[in-house]
Amino acid sequence: MSLKTHIAQQFREIIWYSLDNGLISNATFIAERLYWYDTSNADAKHLFSLCLLRSGRYLTVLYMTEGVKHVGCAYMYAQACLQLGKCKQGIAALEAVSSQWTKSNNMYQHDDIYRCHLPDAAAIFCLLGHLSKKGGMVKKATDYYICSIKLNPFLWEAFDGLCSLGCNLHVKNIFKVTVGMQAERSRAQNIPVQANILQNVDPYISQNTDSEAHSTSHMVHTPDIFNSQKNNTPPFISHYPQSSFLNRLETTETPGSPTAQQIKSSEMIHNFLDHSVAGSSSFISPPNFLDTKIRLNQAKASPTTRSNIDKDFTKNSSPIDIPQRRSQRHLPNASKIASKLASTTSSIRDGRKSKSQMNRSKQEENIQVQEIQTLNTSQSCFQYGQKPNGQIVMSFAERIEAETCLLDLCRSIADGCHALAKYDGAKAIEYFKSLQPISQRNSVFVLSKIGRAYFEMVNYDEAEKYFYRLRKADPTRVEDMEIYSTVLWHLRKEVELSFLAHEILDLDRLAPQSWCIIANCFSLQREHDQALKCIRRAIQLNPNFAYAYTLEGHEYVANEEYERAQTSFRNAMRVDMRHYNAWYGIGMVFLRVGKNDLAMYHFRKAAEINPTNAVLLCCIGMIVERNKDFHEALQLYKKASELAPTSALARFKKAKILVCLRQYHSALKELLLLKDLAPDEANVHFLLGKLYKQLGDKPSAMKHLTIALNLDNRASHLIKEAIESIDEPEENLLGETGEVYKNLDREE
Fold this sequence. Notes:
It is built from 41 helices and no strands. By secondary structure, the chain is mainly α. The longest helix has 26 residues, at about 395-420.
């Protein structure tokens, strides 16, 4: 059986109250009661599936909403598909109901009191982007993200998705006022929209002709945030209509038109008070209250030009007969105002009233219209005055100031994030450290990005400082802690790494990051089998965690299990094709087995993704060096040293190639710098001793050879031979020097 409207409304109010207050079980219970009254009602099904989705019951959501032609149900279905990896099904479900949401824009329909519970085009495009990205459809994901952020520049998720895909973006063209925002501003000022948009065209399209500026296809087809000139937009959005704000303004009837004359005041009141879509499976655009205001003003100015209103309107428009919208529970005087408006409108239409009565009626009407404007929180956020319960409504100037502030802040952070996504660490750090206000620089998000930037620049000391600050600011954070553990691994800080592992494991035993940190602990102690067990647990917890596969591959390399290492690295690439560490790992495997050409291919692919990584340049230089092209290798090592001045590997390789070219003094200069960077590395002191011996400085040679002997007993026979032959000339300075020393046998 179907419920009466006011009973169903009560159910919905309790459900939304429970959801807003985090009472998911209660919301699910009430939503299930509502659903089983009428299982064919799409709105009840949408509410029930929303509760189930928040409860993590994704399979149940799929079962309930599959094939339902309702934008809310399709959105829930797609969300569940995203969690379960059924990306194509989710995309198909949203495309099947595209006619219900392509004209929707709910950007100005959310505040502390009111919200539109159905998704709009920007949100759906963003979800389509997530589904396409997870399904490996990079081009479609890019198009969807562009559509999303063009409609709503505050959707950071869409921008983050574009960054993760490695897109070349013009950030300054993204976080700007959109066409829809400009249209809403124009409406708030009662300025014709067309003239305003001509002066403020879409920042994503080129300014060609007037007709092109208004072309709906340009809104999606010409995203010049990319360097390319083509954009193969999916078919169902190739003729995406203009913003719903602009659309409603263009189709609004003038107050004197026949259509406007036929509208009854009772209909206007009903549309104002009831914004729910109960009993309907189609997407309904919210009513435009600005039209109501215009018509009321017209009725006041020309009371004899409108058609007669039903004489029984006042009698039939009691608060009991008018279904309440969800947000009306916050407005205790709404019914009273509605009744006053009804009586006021009737008095306006009665031409037989006395002059004093007419004046009094006009004064009452002005008061009631102002009150109704205060109640309207769905269509225009640029109204003046004060909402019920003391909530202040932003003025037009305040709204512009607020939007500008948020757009500027997003743009500043986006500059840094985009630079980091392109692995330009120095530029990213510069952007993040110049953020205003200063409090934003100390936020957990920014600290994590700066730490990550230093990590990618192989500056582990600075990276540790920022991750330490991050831990102080948020001791409960698990995200990015696997990177912090790798930093500590490189710095050989066993105590700090063990402490971090214990803390993170206590915080969340089911987080894959926790087990990756423990794996790094075991790896640092050369217990690779134990490390592999921990990594397998991390993969079990999250099969899409690319970093875990990469760590697994490095542990297999340490155990010389190269085939398994390749499998692990390829799994990481399957999850994320831009995971350059996996390309590097496969290159190292081929380098170990002597397949230099294949190693070079994978190293170059990794360098294309991350062109500023000094380790990758060193790896390419190693292969070039093996091919006896010492001069080209030297150029690569020099570039690596410039990119990462604190990289011990780059300087060690550079010193070795200088020795090969018999540039001993230049090599000595590099080794002395390297000695300060890696004072406990035996290979550095061993090579320094042999170089001093070649230059005839026997005291210095003896000093460094002795230090090398104390640091590495395993190579004592080689070092003792060098000490015993201190008076003999050295024919091959690099004969026994290792290719890679212990601090650099793994680079993530």
